[in-house]
Amino acid sequence: MSTPVKTDTAVSIEEIVNDVRERGDAALSEWSAKFDATTSTQPERAVAYGDIPTAAVLAAAEAVRNWHEAQRPGDLMMEVSPGVTLERRWSPLRSVGIYVPKGLVSSLIMTAVPAQVAGVERIVVCTPPRGSAAVAATAALLGIDEVWAIGGAQAIAAMAYGTESIAPVDKIFGPGSGAVNTAKLLVSRDVAIDLPAGPSEIVVVADDGVDEALIAQEIAAQMEHGPDSKGYVVRVGEDLDAALAEVESYAAEHVALLGERAESLAGRIRNAGAVFVGPYSPVPAGDYATGGNHVLPTGGWAKSTGGLGLEGFMKTVTVQRVTKEGLERLAPTIEALAELEGMIAHKATARR
Q1: Residues near 188 by Cβ (< 8 Å), separated by ≥ 6?
Q2: What phi, psi does 202 have (nearest 5°)?
Q3: Within 10 A of 100 (CB to CB), how many other CB atoms are there?
Q4: Positive or negative, the Cα torsion across 324, 328, 334, 338?
Q5: Which partner from 115, 275, 321, 330 sits 20 to 30 angstroms from 299, CA to CA?
Q6: Is 253 one of the annotated active-site residues of the chain?
C-alpha cells in the first residue's frame, strides 16, 4: 500500500517505515532526532518520574479489567456429524506492541490491561519522548517494564519489524495521529494491527431544545485531541429516520445522544465506535472511567469494525478430528468437490 501522507514536504510515512525496517536502530534514532529532538544514538527506555494520580489510574485499570474479563470467549467442541469432531480454541497472542500518544496514560490502560487479562506474555510500549515519564510511571503501576521513548511512524515500524534493540511483536495496538495511523496501515501487510484508530471524531445527535452548552462540551472535549479532530452535530427534527441515516453516514468514532428522541436511536445505530446515551454519559466518561474501551475505529471504519475488546488480544485455533468411519461418510463430498476444482491429489486423500 503506497500512501501520499507526508510528515513534512519532503518525507513520506512510507519512507520512514522502510528506513527503520532496513537500518534498524540507526534509522530509528535519526528519525527521533528529526521529529522529537532526541540526542541519543540508540533507542532509549522511558524513565518514570513525577507524580501521577495513582488512585485514578488504578480505578480506571480495575474498571477496564472487569469489563474485559467479562468478554472472555469460550472454547467450543462439537461433533458436527458422526465421526467428525471440531474444536475451536482461544489462546492469547504471545507479544503485542502498544502505541501510546503523547502523555495519554488512559490509552495505555485501555490497551495494556486487556492484554494482561488475555494472558499476553510480552507487552511492548512506545510513546513519544515528551510525556513519556507519566506513561512509564503508569506502566510501572500496571506491571509493564518495556517502555520505549519513541514516537511517530518510526515507533510503529520498530515494533512491526524489530531493530537491534527492540524485538518485533505479533500485533500492534493503540490510537495515534494521522501519521501513526498511516504507518499502522502500511505495516499491516506484514504484522497484524488492531484497527485504524486515527484522529478523533464525534457526532452529537440532539433534540430541539437540548442545552447547547452540553453539545459544546462534547465537541470541545474531542477537539482537544488535535487540529485534525472532527465534530458534527445532527439535529433531530420530525424525521427520526433521516437523522439516523445522517448519523450512519458519518460512521464516527463517538456518537453522543442528547434528548429523548435522540436517545431512542441508541439501539438502532450500527455505524459507530461507541454510543453515549443521555446528558450524564459524556464521552470522556468512556475515555477514562467506565471501563469501556476507547480505542475505536475512525475514518469511516466503524461501518465494518467495532472497538477494541478482549478478543483482539487473542486468536483461535481450530482442531479437526475425523475417525475412519467419519472419513468414509465425508469421502463422497471430498471427491466430488475436489474433482470439480481439478484437485486430483485432494481427491485421493478421501480413501485411506
Answers
A1: none
A2: -145, 140
A3: 33
A4: positive
A5: 115
A6: yes
The DSSP letter of residue 19 is H
Which regions of the chain does DSSP assign to beta strands (E)?
A: 76-81, 84-92, 95-99, 122-127, 147-149, 171-173, 192-193, 201-207, 230-236, 252-258, 272-277, 314-322
Radius of gyration of the chain (CA): 24
Q: What is the pTM of this model?
A: 0.91
pLDDT range class, residue 11, cuts 50, 70, 90: confident
- Reading the block at residue 304, the C-alpha cell is 465494518
- Exactly one of 218, 248, 253, 263 is catalytic; which is it? 253
Which of the residues 68, 225, 254, 294 is marked catalytic? 254
User: Bridge partners of 266?
Assistant: none
Annotation marks residue 69 as catalytic: no
Q: What is the mean pLDDT of the chain?
A: 95
Tell me which CATH code domain 201-303 carries: 3.40.50.1980
Give the whole-angstrom CA distance, residue 31 versus residue 42: 11
What residues contact residue 15 under an 8 Å CB cut-off, 6+ apart? none
Which CATH homologous superfamily contains domain 13-194? Nitrogenase molybdenum iron protein domain (3.40.50.1980)
Q: Are 276 and 286 in contact (CB under 8 A)?
A: yes
